Amino acid sequence: MKVPRDINATRLTLMTVGGIMGSGLFLAIGQAIRLAGPAIAISLLIGVTIMALEVAALAEMAAADRERGSFLAFAHHALGPGSAFVGGWIFWFSSILNISAEATAGAIFTRLWFPQIPVYVFSVGYALIVVGINFLTVRGFSTVESWMSGTKITATVVFILIGILAIAGILPVKHPVGIRGWYAMPSFFPHGIKGVLAAMVLVLFSMSGTGVLGLAAPNVKNAETTIAKSIRNTIIAIYILYVGAALALTAILIWYTVPTAQSPFTAALRTLPWGWLVNVFNLVILLAVLSAMNAGLFATDRVLATLGRIHAAPKVVAKESHGIPRMANLVTGVLFVVISGLAYFLPKTAYLYLVTATGFQALFIWGLIIVTQIVYRKILLKEGKDLEFRLKGYPYSSILAVILIVGVIATAPLAPHEMISLEISIGASVIFFIAYLPVRAKRLKQQHEK
Fold first, then answer.
1. Angle CA(184)–CA(190)–CA(194) in degrees, nearest 5?
2. HEC string for 152-209
3. How far is the C-alpha of 18 from the C-alpha of 151, rounded, in Å?
4. Cα distance between residue 305 and residue 321, in whole Å
5. Quick one: which of 79, 141, 41 has its CA closest to 88?
6. Neighbours of 180 (CB within 10 A)
């Protein structure tokens, strides 16, 4: 069956940028700014560099091997079934943490209107609604996804313009900080390089939704030019939007007053005399988070179903009804609802723990993707595959990506809340590795009997 190739660079860029922008920008950026100050711009530069290398590595494999199409299939072929097993389960667990963080973020945004209702009520409620939707259909949301991507981008651009107008003294901002907030309170690097590095896990969490480019790569027109252009445009767009938003925030609010328990964007907009603007922006980011959560659960269910099909999970989770993996949705949904209820026990810190744990898990997956690409390029060339798109500077750029990823993981001790999340991530990875041992033994026994 011929794979349709009808995605151009503009559409692919919009899909990728929209997939990346979520609660990491609209909520977690507040904690990142508190750690790094205005120097968050440096953290973001490091982040987009790592993101660019990871996306390019994934796109290279996806464009060259359109039949396999999944990083798990690439890892299985290049590194063996063990890597696909462990990587698949880490990806599934990471995805649940991610959508649980989005549910908690949605709850935090909703409390702008209902401050008396506990966070966990909304987070669990949103989780139940999204799980229910995925039992029925997500067709309606597929149309909304592209629309929401444009809406998120537009809202962020509008906020940056508001920041520029506030700095210029054109808008009536209460107690304006201005550009002095970037260098004089007390400096651009209020916590030094330590602060820049401490913010890295949060920064990379905010950029972790890059998988759409790899999934869409097999369907692009003129892979070499389209993917290269899309990656370049995505990097430029994300850096400008994120840095522009962060600098606008620190020009309206003093960096050490940027809130972490609510969206810093709505806090900044409250300094303007138009209350309706706060409500409109809050509604936009709430809808964006709910949309991302729904799409995330859709993908997570199918990852679990795939694990069932490749005998890395019980076969029952691979069963589908009318194209919907209902058992996978049930299993994923139960854990999703339970983790979303974490806000009951940790109402003030649940989101932060979920975000940092997701960030570490995403880094493990990115590391696996890069290592797979290092090995897989040799396999593809040996098989005579046409590398329509290539990661430039191979193998040095790939090695640099691995070094940077390991370096970011090593920054965990710099932020007190990150060590627990790192321990959870490592613990989960160890559990999945141990779980693979009996699976491996069974496969070896079957091969020996043959």
1. 160
2. HHHHHHHHHHHHHHHHCCCCCCCCCCCCHHHHCCCCCCCCHHHHHHHCHHHHHHCCCC
3. 9
4. 12
5. 79
6. 12
Task: Assign 141 a pLDDT band (cuts: 50, 70, 90).
Answer: very low
Is 138:324 a contact under the CB 8 Å cutoff? no
Q: State yes or no: cis peptide before 176, omega within 30 of 0.
A: no
CA distance 34 to 36: 6
At residue 384, the 3 state secondary structure works out as coil
Q: What is the DSSP string of 183-198?
A: HSSS-S-TTHHHHHHH
Secondary structure of residue 28 in the 3-state scheme: helix
Percent of the chain with pLDDT over 90: 27
CA-to-CA distance for 310 and 366, rounded, in angstroms? 22
- Could you tell me which of 252, 121, 77, 95 has the C-alpha nearest to residue 175? 252
Total residue length of the chain:
450
pLDDT of res. 342: 85
On the 0-12 / 13-18 / 19+ scale of CB atoms within 10 A, 439 is: middle
Location of structure tokens 């990097």: 235
Digit-coded pLDDT (tens) for 276-315: 999 999 998 898 888 778 777 877 887 888 888 877 888 8
396-409 and 40-64 are packed helices; what angle lies between their axes, rounded to 10 degrees? Answer: 130
What percent of the residues of the chain are helix, what percent strand, and what percent coil, each to the nearest 5?
75, 0, 20
HSE-CB of 349 using CA atoms within 13 angstroms: 10
Location of structure tokens 């369907």 = 219
What is the C-alpha separation between 43 and 199, in angstroms, rounded? 7
3-state secondary structure of 242: helix
Residue 294: closest CA among 129, 76, 64: 129
Q: How far apart are the first and last CA of the chain?
A: 32
Round to whole Å and give the CA distance between 422 and 401. 20
Q: What is the pLDDT of residues 347-381, one digit of tens each?
A: 778 888 888 888 888 899 999 999 999 999 998 88
> At CB < 8 A and 24+ separation, what contacts does 180-188 make?
181/38, 181/250, 181/251, 181/253, 181/254, 181/255, 182/38, 182/247, 182/250, 182/251, 183/38, 185/254, 185/255, 185/256, 187/37, 188/37, 188/38, 188/39
The amino acid at residue 371 is V
| Residue 101, phi then psi, degrees to nearest 5 | -65, -40
Q: How far is CA 126 from CA 120, 293, 353, 441, in A?
A: 10, 9, 19, 41
